[in-house]
Amino acid sequence: MADGNLPRAEVVVDLGAVRHNVSLLVARAGASGAATMAVVKADGYGHGAVPVARAAVEAGAAWLGVCSLGEALALRDAGIDVPVLSWLDTIDTDFAPGVAAGIDLSVSSSRELGAIVEGARAAGARARVHLKIDTGLSRNGCPPNEWAELVAAAAGAPEVELVGVWSHLACADEPGHPSVDLQARRFREACAAAGTPVRHLANSAATLDRPDLHFDLVRVGIAMYGLNPLPYAQDLRPAMTFRSSVALTKRIAAGESVSYGQTWTADRDTNLALVPVGYADGVPRLLSGRMDVLLAGRRRPVVGRVCMDQLVVDCGDDRVPVGEEVVLFGDGTRGEPTATEWANTIGTIDYEIVTGMYRPRIVRTYRDAR
């Protein structure tokens, strides 16, 4: 139906879906005696960190996780006071504000530990730290041959409280991959050497698939947004819908072509609908000629190339009104495309699709806020 009040580009986030997903994950973790950390880095995977964090806590998440100290402090500034872990910052980061705000900080090297110690001294408070061991991802984390030295340095620093040990799995989304058990063994060995009370290894996939790896705390990211990291079904509800509206309609004759490069030519007289979103708004140009939208109750093909600011939909003999809602992706319940469908079509992951929705021209609104 036509709606003249629709923004040109809108992301609608269903916080009820977030609560549903987090409740499911909390129950899975709780069955193993583990608490749940809801990961809201990258502005809540494009969904909005603060509203999503609040919904996650309402649904039972006991911790929040972010990438950077700035992200963590934004949660504190919003009045969110549950434990927050921040795990990756640059060499010149001033950790004093994080220590003062009670942010838990990840440590992967003696250099990082030294910077956090300086921050603790400046803040006049002890820093809460989680030591990260590299168990096989070969990304962030302390190499095993330096682990004993790092553990000893942290234990010997009166400015820090050693809260946890953690690591990250490389292939948990591939059930049965041998690296998962190898990483788990290395993680257990690292924990035994450190003796800390909070151990966390499981991501979304391992939370759903490997209860033996829940330890004391699980970190759930993509699944809390309703996107399934496993190759078999889970009771998850995608929380994000991306929509726009029809800005212009026209009828073209058979033989006329559409958009740059004239890669699509009409084989019949047809009606076109212009939608004012493009790759500047998160629609990958790689979807040109390979995507549909939900418009006037039907899936319809996007024809020609996706442009920076617009795309064109072939409506055949249907005449759709200007202002009609166009759903680019959603939860799929109305037959519309999903973020996962977009990702599969262009050979990427749905994480990239939803995080790519945090853009200046996109209005973000929320359903089922409390």
From TrEMBL:
The active site is at K41, Y260. It is an enzyme of class 5 (isomerase). Keywords: Isomerase, Pyridoxal phosphate. Pfam families: Ala_racemase_C, Ala_racemase_N. Its cofactor is pyridoxal 5'-phosphate. Belongs to the alanine racemase family. Catalyzes the interconversion of L-alanine and D-alanine. May also act on other amino acids. This is Alanine racemase. It comes from Actinophytocola gossypii. The lineage of its organism: Bacteria, Bacillati, Actinomycetota, Actinomycetes, Pseudonocardiales.
